[in-house]
């Protein structure tokens, strides 16, 4: 029989650091790790020399990696997280233009030559944003410093061109405000959607005002109040199951005004039924249900700063995977998942395919609403749409109010 090496008691600080590292892999990179894997990691670290960075890395890798492609991500995160004390940290670079306004705004800086201030030799305007959340290119011209003060007065020579790329995931920030001028039309569309979702009747008998079966026990209890005379009969029946809706809204820059319209539609649906959950995502995921439930109908819909969930890039797969885990206990066969996105994604299609497979296995139906699908001769050629198509019950247009009003009818046609 092989003897196993005895486990050593880890210091409390190291145990907490390993647990934090496991949480980092789960939240940041979508590793399928939880409390069980965290306990395995602590036990694995207890049988190796924790002073050896290589042994600790190999021990944690053996219990935290489930796929070969995760090895590179794990090694990078391990080297960053468990950096030895005294080793130089990555330098923190200051922003290139700490006081500049939004890209494209014209302003003068101290390094701008006088002839440029007078209108001569203006720098070219920044390139417009690329579709699908592509990074923007900004060109800044800076005058090189002179060796002496006298030379700087006569300097009118060469300029050094510096090109920087704005982050493709940067969000616009600020509050989200949507007018409610078309609330009645949106409420009608939401009502039609609820009626279109046919779920059948419940398997269990429940008390009803009128049903196919007499509830003898409740009838006799009621007869005790009328001297044993069953004046009021009680009934049992199988009521229709109420559908549950899970809406996930793409709030990235590429959605534009369509995101605001679909946000108002989600608000209208939450006014018609309480069995609805609404999330928004861009590079991060945020639950909007509490904000929508407290919003007053007939007034402009105002949400606080949603941070990474609005106005940035697009990470559909990562956010849908996080959503599938958060809603794992509540998504069932009575749930209709509505993904409201144009499908322009900067993430990996494999992650999106994994998230869609998880949602499809639990939900009753999964429907993708795309503003681009309303365009003439639209073809689902986006990588995200192609990865999600095998798991979708329908890919429907959502380019305006008419598409939302026809949504319930289109769903009924696919029943």
UniProtKB/TrEMBL annotation:
CDD domains: vWFA (cd00198). Residues 88-97 have a biased composition (Pro residues). Residues 84-177 are annotated as: Disordered. It holds the Pfam family VWA_CoxE. This is Carbon monoxide oxidation accessory protein CoxE. It comes from Deinococcus marmoris. The lineage of its organism: Bacteria, Thermotogati, Deinococcota, Deinococci, Deinococcales.
